[in-house]
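SUBJECT: protein chain
CONTENTS: sequence, structure tokens:
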Amino acid sequence: MVTKQDTSLPLRKEVKMLGNILGEILIYQGGQELFDTVERIRIMCKSLRLHVEDETYHDLKKEIASLSPLMRMQVIRAFSVYFHLINAAEQNHRIRRRRDYQLNSEDEQPGSIEQAIQSMKDKQISGEIIQDVLKRLSLDLIITAHPTEATKRSVLEIQKRISNLLIRLDSPLLTNKERKNIEESLYNEITTLWHTDELRDRKPTVIDEVRNGLYYFDKIFFDVLPEIHQEVEDSLKEHYEDDDWNVPTFLRFGSWIGGDRDGNPFVTPEVTWETLTRQRGLVLRKYEKVLIELMKRLSHSSARAPISEAILQSVEYGESNYIAADKRWPVHNETYRRMLAIVIERLRMVGESSLGYKSANELLDDLQMIKESIYGHHPKAHELKLLQKLIRQVQLFGFHLGTLDIRNHSEEHSAALTEILKKVNVEKNYQALTEEQKLDLLENLLTDPRPLLLAREEYSEETREMIEVFDLIKRAHKEFGKESIRVYIVSMTRSASDLLEVLLLAKEAGLYRRHVDGTVESDLNVAPLLETIEDLSNGSAILQTLLQMPVYREH
């Protein structure tokens, strides 16, 4: 067991090993001079980190200033690769420390889900209170659009392979030959990293950014998010045995990439639609891969296991209506496989044919039906983890993968509304009104069921594109589900009217509706982004003004 005094020893050994490999590569690629230069700079930086000394600082600056352009570029490259390797080692060490806690410690790891739930139990917080909080809890973590920070996908793939190799090196069952092969693979991967450009040879397009963002959904979020929810549920069952736990999906990921229009003229409605299409394509491929694996495992024969009547009827109907004869599962008694063949075929037709699933809820219903049937003959105490995880994935990601936030500048909405209101003779110069006058006008227009818009050709190109953005959101809700775009962010929000302007544009697209009986139906959250010190200071007053207005409060 690793003691508290030497918990960092495996990390130090790993960093030393990676550093030695990099050192060999530096000597081979740039000669002894490159290696010696990097070492001198590294030692001086390490010294400065421990003790700030003017003499060492000036020596460091002098050393860097004396480098030729080519040598300076190689030194920068060396440190860049070195930090990639250190990051990989640190991430592996966190995994190692967690496993060590789980194997050797009676206490829960500080900061872990288990420790948090144990703490609540110790403080006698009831399961009823926790369940109530979980039902209302919603955490959306958003990937923002910063193309200058986007790491090339090829570099991300190398980093992933290095991390996997480090994890394999931790196995105590490795033979000397296996260890040597892994170390050889590490050397090759680090060499490839040295030779791989970190920067693109051209400015990334929005779709390049989208592809980069999808990497994280593909490689991380799709599998990790369900496991987090399962870990919460398992810990609650362990510490609150008398409660019946079914943890709702409270944690999700979303993105601004492809929807952040503020200051980016390349984020057009067409690009946003392409983003949504790519997101759906990825999540459908991920589902199909899991379903194929599930089909391999559910080889139950109806001659040996009592299949539910609901499944039997669904299979008969599905084979008659959804799937061609040559694509049906050939073994009649393997009912679950017959059912999954139908599910996979309908999944492949999503967005392509009326025979495909109309919504993720339809897929979820079929998976729940399979689960209920299986637990008619399989012990409930022993969950089929793959099926349960897939159900959670569909609950989390639907057919949209992650919610896409739309962001635009407040002045863009104001300018569009000024033109619209002038064209329909409602207000000659909306932008010249006081804040109080704007709020009165906007409230009246939001409560009026009549539309404002004229034919599109009546407006300027800028206003037409603004109208098209809201039309796109409406179409996206129909094609990808309402979870595909849930939030419209108003950057540089300075007043309450900035949010009501967006709500009025949403009303014209049918995203906000006030019915005859006075009830309000709203499919889009409008979120203020307060970006200056003055606006932040005024934030509470803005929200207070909005929430005192029935038209916004009901929305």
About this structure: The chain is about 60% helix and 5% strand. The chain has a mean pLDDT of 92. The longest strand covers residues 139-143.
